[in-house]
Design a protein that fits this description.
The protein is α/β, with parallel strands linked by helices. The chain has 18 helices and 13 strands.
Length: 515
């Protein structure tokens, strides 16, 4: 027997995109945080740029060689602009600029970090861009670096002229000594050499050693550098939105909590049979079916109807309502599901197998049984009726698992049993109860229940032979959550838990008071 043929359906891509979008929008706080960080970054950058000014001066670099004597070499190739650019940004020029600005030489390094020297393409122009916190300081700094570079280049040219003429003067002195001691026949040749050397010295000294001209002097700028505050804020908003989306995507990729029906069905391999809406503005009482009317109550009635359709026509039988880990997640669903099943005219028994954990006995409106009903066998001994405006009889028992393991005649007459246990993955008896129940209903809280817990539950129940009827997505109620947090837990080890004898004594007391 072969399995289904796998294929890639391209029409599933929009659903996948919508699912990814829902996962990202689930973390709206991170998106808002990213937007806030982006706006704050843009605001900080605009405040920083508001006190930063930049001024520019330009220098035309001239060649120190004779342009007419350099045969075969173009004027552009007579000067290495890359070398001059490095010299202009050197520490020597920065020291000269610091002296022109009236600052000590120790500030030359700081000034060098504020200047940027560039060379426009295919030109012999050096551009000095100086940045300062005031317009006048920016202009003075740019002009100081331009003048310092020209002064440094002129000093280097003068040094080169001095070295060259010094060497020529030494040669002239040697030739003069030869003339004074030489023969008459060699005097003419020596005199010609002396004449050429003297002429060369005069040519070198007559050459212009000025390295260039300032073609553009810097002026105080009217506006700070960079874009304006509006542009920076808009840019920060866009970058912050992108950052928030990335953070939300990473958080959704790393988040193991379920947040949609598809994730629950995929992890539990069972359908979602009910979705309980949030009812934060309503009453915070545990039992709402048969006592108050709200969308949440109608959702419980719809859940009971679906369970009747899944189970036998007479009722769903014995249903175990559990949650993966958190205490208190399943008790409200179990109580209201029992009331909704009883509203159809059936007899429903709510069994609490973890009375010391759930505390249902202290939260349900119980009515003690005044007259025993041995003929019908409902409710069993040790149980009490629950005060709810339903068509059938709704009883509660906290005698542990006995209510589930004992199949009385009332079950054959169409009675249903709703069993609530402690968290499945932490309660010791939950797995044994799952093996004996007719069906299991898993309570899932979106945003809190983890996919790994649902997969573990599915695996354990499947291996034990249990049957998962489906899952119930409970959005929760704020009032109930706060009340559960404030409610003290009964500890049977310390003697504060209620035993069956304690329930009997309390029922007798209530019966006497009602009489």
């Amino acid at each position: 027997m072969t399995g289904p043929i796998p294929f890639d359906d391209r029409y599933d891509e929009p659903d996948q995109l919508r699912d990814q979008l829902r996962r990202i929008l689930r973390h709206r706080g991170l998106i808002a945080l990213g937007i806030l960080l982006g706006v704050l970054g843009g605001l900080a950058l605009s405040l920083q740029r508001a006190h930063t000014y930049s001024a520019t001066s330009e220098v035309l670099v001239r060649s120190t060689t004779d342009p007419f004597g350099a045969v075969g070499v173009s004027a552009d190739n007579q000067v290495s602009m890359s070398t001059e650019q490095r010299i202009a940004a050197s520490a020597t020029v920065a020291v000269r600029a610091a002296r022109l600005l009236g600052q000590p030489d120790s500030q030359a390094g700081t000034l060098g970090t504020r200047v940027r020297v560039t060379n426009p393409l295919k030109s012999q122009v050096l551009r000095f861009e100086f940045t300062a916190d005031a317009p006048q300081r920016a202009a003075r700094g740019a002009n100081a670096f331009a003048d310092a570079y020209l002064a440094d280049r002129e000093s280097r040219s003068d040094a080169t002229v001095a070295r060259t003429t010094r060497a020529l003067q030494q040669q002239i002195a040697v030739l003069n000594q030869r003339l004074s001691q030489g023969v008459e026949t060699a005097k003419s040749a020596t005199q010609n050499q002396l004449y050429n050397l003297q002429k060369r010295v005069l040519d070198i000294k007559a050459r212009d050693t000025d390295g260039g001209d300032v073609v553009r002097r810097a002026t105080a700028p009217a506006l700070p550098v960079g874009p304006g505050p509006r542009t920076l804020l808009a840019l920060g908003l866009g970058c912050g939105l992108l950052l928030g989306i990335v953070l939300a995507w990473v958080r959704s990729a790393l988040d193991s909590r379920v947040g949609s029906v598809g994730e629950v069905q995929s992890a539990l391999r069972a359908p979602v049979v009910g979705i309980l809406p949030s009812d934060d503005g309503g009453d915070d009482a545990l039992l709402t079916v048969g006592r108050t009317g709200s969308p949440r109550t109608e959702a419980y009635r719809a859940l009971a109807f679906r369970l009747r359709q899944i189970g036998d026509p007479g009722g769903p039988g014995q249903v175990l309502v559990v949650a993966p880990r958190r205490v208190g997640d399943a008790e409200e669903v179990a109580a209201n599901l029992g009331a909704a099943l009883a509203d159809n005219g059936s007899d429903v028994l709510l069994v609490d197998t973890a009375a010391h954990t759930t505390g249902l006995a202290t939260q349900l409106p119980l009515i003690p049984i005044e007259v025993p009903t041995p003929a019908t066998g409902f409710p069993p001994a040790g149980s009490t009726f629950v005060e709810a405006d339903v068509a059938g009889r709704f009883a509660f028992s906290s005698n542990g698992a006995a209510g589930l393991l004992d199949r009385t005649e009332s079950a054959d007459a169409g009675a249903s049993t709703v069993v609530v246990a402690g968290p499945f993955l932490t309660h010791a008896d939950a797995l044994s109860l799952a093996q004996r129940a007719d069906g299991i209903l898993v309570v899932v809280h979106p945003g809190h229940t983890r996919r790994e817990d649902l997969r573990q539950m599915q695996e354990l129940i499947g291996c034990s032979g249990g049957r998962i009827l489906g899952a119930v997505l409970d959005a929760g109620r704020a009032g109930r959550r706060l009340r559960v947090l404030r409610r003290p837990r009964n500890n049977p080890a310390s003697g504060t838990g209620l035993s069956s004898t304690d329930h009997s004594e309390r029922d007798a007391t209530l019966s006497i008071s009602r009489r």
